[in-house]
């Protein structure tokens, strides 16, 4: 039987522990029956306790990987994750500007759940200036949203105000993620696309094994966009996938375990 699946691309870093980064993204694509392709930006030595080393790839190497995929296989959607430094961000943004009809999910990865800084200081300005205007959907967490908006965020109203400020930077839609809150806001996300301001709420999962939630969410949005869903529907489906994966999160390692991407295999 001839099978012609949607194709998605992740432009992100490798997580040796397998919970976040490229490893989380490719697994998420697979569990949406979307063919996953990848362009590595850097290699992290990482486990459930933190990041001990980061090795960057040359910007030319990142672009060559993207070009190899785009020129032959073709993609319907992509996500960016840990882009690490200014030169990689500028090179990627320059390439993406020339791509037509590809939905871009930009996860502005800056700080990991374990508190490790995942991006150089000078890279934040490049991200804001060059990449955010290309976003079909931009997915900052609480801390990234504070940096990008310049506003402190502790309430739902703060999230809504920041979403509007950040959307004004040029993103088509912004989804501020609530995993970094305590109490009832934990797991509540806010969506703003210039017209619709809404909150996306699922049940809160009581676990500390949340490594890879942000990567998984952005990859799942890209997968759902490649399947033809609208941005808001893609975000809703993706949130559902992350919530279920969180409810099957993995108790491995001595720190924060990853979400269980393969829960559909366990549910049967
Ligand atoms: N304990 C939880 N229960 C339910 N949803 C959660 C929980 N923690 C995170 N999420 C959801 O996971 C997604 C990723 O959010 P977040 O963890 O804030 O991102 P990041 O990993 O980038 O910090 C969001 O949809 C968020 O609401
Ligand atoms: C290579 C890499 N990319 C991204 C993250 C962020 O992970 P999270 O999804 O938990 O915010 C990470 N820890 N490592």
TrEMBL record:
Q: What is this protein called?
A: Bifunctional hydroxymethylpyrimidine kinase/phosphomethylpyrimidine kinase
Q: Where are the transmembrane segments?
A: none
Catalytic reaction annotation: 4-amino-2-methyl-5-(phosphooxymethyl)pyrimidine + ATP = 4-amino-2-methyl-5-(diphosphooxymethyl)pyrimidine + ADP; 4-amino-5-hydroxymethyl-2-methylpyrimidine + ATP = 4-amino-2-methyl-5-(phosphooxymethyl)pyrimidine + ADP + H(+)
Q: What domain of life is recorded for the organism?
A: Bacteria
**Which pathway does the UniProt entry assign to this protein?**
Cofactor biosynthesis; thiamine diphosphate biosynthesis; 4-amino-2-methyl-5-diphosphomethylpyrimidine from 5-amino-1-(5-phospho-D-ribosyl)imidazole: step 3/3
Keywords assigned by UniProt, alphabetized: ATP-binding, Kinase, Nucleotide-binding, Thiamine biosynthesis, Transferase
Q: Name one GO cellular component term.
A: cytosol
* One Pfam family named in its UniProt record: Phos_pyr_kin
Task: Name the EC number(s).
Answer: 2.7.1.49, 2.7.4.7
Q: Which GO terms describe its molecular function?
A: ATP binding; hydroxymethylpyrimidine kinase activity; phosphomethylpyrimidine kinase activity
Species source reads: Leptothoe spongobia TAU-MAC 1115
Q: In what residue span(s) does the Pyridoxamine kinase/Phosphomethylpyrimidine kinase domain sit?
A: 15-259
Q: What is the lineage of its organism?
A: Bacteria, Bacillati, Cyanobacteriota, Cyanophyceae, Nodosilineales
UniProt cross-references to InterPro entries, sorted A to Z? HMP/HMP-P_kinase_dom (IPR004399), PM/HMP-P_kinase-1 (IPR013749), Ribokinase-like (IPR029056)
Q: Which GO terms describe its biological process?
A: thiamine biosynthetic process
């Amino acid at each position: 039987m001839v099978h012609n699946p949607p194709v998605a691309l992740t432009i992100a870093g490798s997580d040796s522990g397998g919970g976040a980064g490229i490893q989380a993204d490719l697994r998420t694509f697979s569990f949406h029956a979307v063919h996953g392709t990848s362009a590595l930006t850097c290699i992290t030595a990482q486990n459930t306790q933190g990041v001990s080393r980061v090795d960057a790839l040359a910007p030319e190497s990142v672009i060559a990987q993207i070009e190899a995929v785009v020129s032959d296989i073709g993609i319907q959607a992509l996500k960016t994750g840990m882009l690490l430094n200014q030169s990689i961000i500028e090179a990627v943004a320059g390439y993406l500007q020339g791509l037509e009809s590809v939905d871009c999910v930009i996860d502005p990865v800056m700080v990991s759940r374990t508190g490790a800084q995942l991006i150089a200081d000078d890279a934040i300005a490049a991200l804001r200036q060059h990449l955010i205007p290309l976003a079909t959907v931009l997915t900052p967490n609480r801390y990234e949203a504070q940096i990008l908006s310049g506003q402190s965020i502790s309430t739902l109203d703060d999230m809504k105000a920041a979403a509007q400020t950040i959307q004004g930077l040029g993103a088509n839609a912004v989804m501020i993620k609530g995993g970094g809150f305590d109490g009832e806001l934990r797991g509540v996300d806010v969506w703003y696309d210039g017209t619709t301001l809404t909150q996306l709420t699922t049940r809160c999962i009581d676990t500390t094994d949340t490594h890879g939630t942000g990567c998984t969410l952005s990859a799942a949005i890209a997968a759902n966009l490649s399947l033809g869903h609208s941005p808001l529907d893609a975000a809703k489906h993706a949130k559902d996938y992350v919530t279920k994966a969180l409810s099957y999160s993995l108790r491995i390692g001595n720190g924060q375990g990853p979400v269980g991407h393969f829960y559909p295999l366990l549910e049967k």
